[in-house]
Amino acid sequence: MLTDAKVRNAKPRPKTYKLADTNRLCLMATPSGGKLWRWNYEYDGKNKTMAFVPIPASRWRMLAKSAMKPGPCCAKDRIPMSRSA
Asked: I need a labelling partner for 5 at 20 to 30 A (CA). Which of 27, 71, 72, 83 fits?
């Protein structure tokens, strides 16, 4: 399980790499120093990936657990998020 300290200490490497967390959640660290949360899930028998803006790992674990409930595909129903300046 990733902790907040492990996420903050993820350093850039020459290639993009992933740090795995629970419930198919992972943090992608880019060579430029960016960090992006990605969640792999299965819907209708197909593997899908959803990307999120950076927030603490504990919050994403909670969201991933609640999203694993049966129902419509969450990627189709999500609202586009815009970053404020």
From this structure: 83
